[in-house]
TrEMBL record:
It holds the Pfam family Polysacc_deac_1. Gene3D superfamilies: Glycoside hydrolase/deacetylase (3.20.20.370). Keywords: Signal. GO terms for biological process: carbohydrate metabolic process. Coiled coil: none annotated. Residues 106-281 form the NodB homology domain. One of its GO terms (molecular function) is hydrolase activity, acting on carbon-nitrogen (but not peptide) bonds. InterPro entries: Glyco_hydro/deAcase_b/a-brl (IPR011330), NODB_dom (IPR002509), Polysacch_Deacetylase (IPR051398). This is NodB homology domain-containing protein.
Length: 281
C-alpha cells in the first residue's frame, strides 16, 4: 500500500481524528495568543505594523454555542462580547457588499459558515436586537439531510427559511463541503453548480455568493476558481493575505478569541495566519 494511502486510512481512525483535532486546537491556541500578545505590545509601545489603506473587515464565524464543533464554535456570551468590543472600538456593522464598496471605513460584516442551528437560536436574536446584518453560507446537501453525525446540528430547509425570514442573507457553501483542493475540475463544477441550483430551487430566489469550505490557500485550485467565477458573482475565502487569487478576504474568528485576541484580529494580527491542517479532516 502506498504511503499516502496508508496515511489517509490511518487518518480516518477515530483515535487519529481525535489526536488531529487536539493538535490543531493546541497549535491554534498558542499561535493566536502569541500573535495577539505581540499586537498588544506593539500597540502599547507605538511599534505598530504598517498596513494598507483597507480597514473594513468581513468576519467568518461558524457556530454560536455548538460545543461539538470545537475551535470553530464561539460561545454565545463571547459572541455578544465581540459585538460590544467592536462598538466600543468605533466599528460599525454593515453587509459584505458595503464593506467592499467602502473598504477605507471602519466597518465590520458578520458572516457564518455551515448553517449551524445555534446561529438561529443564539446569534440571530442578538443581531436582530441590535440591527446588525449578517450572511449565512449554507451547505445545500446538509440542508437536505446528507451530513455526517458530527454535523447533525445544522439547519434543514425549514430552518434556513426561518433564518432568512429573520433577515439573514443566504449564500452557498457548496453541495457537500468538500476540500476543493482535492477535487478534480469536474467534481468541483458539480459541487458549485448543484449547490446554487438547489439553494435557488428551495429558497425561491437567486444565489450569487459562495464561500470556500475550509477557505484556506490549500483548499482551492485555479481550476475551481475559474469555474466559480462563471457560477457566482463573489467568492469568499477564510483568510486575508494568504487567500487564493480572485477571492474576497474574511477574517476567521474562533472559540479562542477572547477580547484581546478579537481586537488583534480586527487590527490585522492574523492577516498572514492560516488554520493548520494535518491531513484528513
Amino acid at each position: 500500500m502506498p504511503v499516502s494511502s496508508l496515511r489517509s486510512s490511518l487518518g480516518e481512525l477515530p483515535a487519529a481524528q481525535a489526536a488531529y483535532r487536539c493538535a490543531v486546537a493546541g497549535r491554534m491556541r498558542a499561535e493566536r495568543w502569541g500573535l495577539a500578545l505581540d499586537e498588544a505590545l506593539r500597540t502599547r509601545t507605538g511599534l505598530t505594523r504598517p498596513r494598507g489603506a483597507a480597514t473594513g473587515r468581513i468576519l467568518a464565524y461558524h457556530s454560536i454555542g455548538t460545543d461539538e464543533w470545537g475551535v470553530n464554535d464561539v460561545r454565545p456570551a463571547d459572541f455578544e462580547r465581540h459585538l460590544q468590543v467592536a462598538v466600543d472600538d468605533g466599528w460599525t456593522f454593515a453587509t459584505p457588499a458595503q464593506v467592499l464598496a467602502a473598504p477605507e471605513l471602519r466597518q465590520l460584516a458578520i458572516t457564518f459558515d455551515d448553517g449551524a442551528t445555534s446561529v438561529l437560536d443564539n446569534a440571530v436574536p442578538v443581531l436582530r436586537h441590535h440591527g446588525v446584518p449578517s450572511t449565512m453560507f449554507a451547505v445545500s446537501g446538509w440542508a437536505d439531510g446528507g451530513h455526517d453525525a458530527g454535523y447533525a446540528h445544522v439547519l434543514d430547509w425549514a430552518g434556513l427559511a426561518r433564518l432568512e425570514a429573520a433577515g439573514v442573507t443566504l449564500a452557498s457553501h457548496s453541495a457537500s463541503h468538500p476540500d476543493f483542493g482535492r477535487l478534480d475540475p469536474a467534481a468541483a463544477e458539480r459541487e458549485l453548480v448543484e449547490s446554487r441550483r438547489r439553494l435557488e430551487t428551495m429558497l425561491g430566489h437567486g444565489i450569487d455568493e459562495f464561500a470556500i469550505p475550509f477557505g484556506q490557500s490549500a483548499n482551492w485550485t485555479p481550476e475551481a476558481g475559474a469555474i466559480a467565477s462563471r457560477v457566482y458573482r463573489t467568492v469568499y475565502a477564510q483568510a486575508v493575505d494568504t487567500r487564493p487569487a480572485g477571492t474576497i478576504p474574511r477574517t476567521f474568528i474562533t472559540q479562542i478569541d477572547r477580547p484581546l485576541i478579537f481586537r488583534a484580529a480586527l487590527n490585522g494580527a492574523f492577516d498572514n495566519w492560516e488554520e493548520w491542517f494535518l491531513g484528513p479532516r
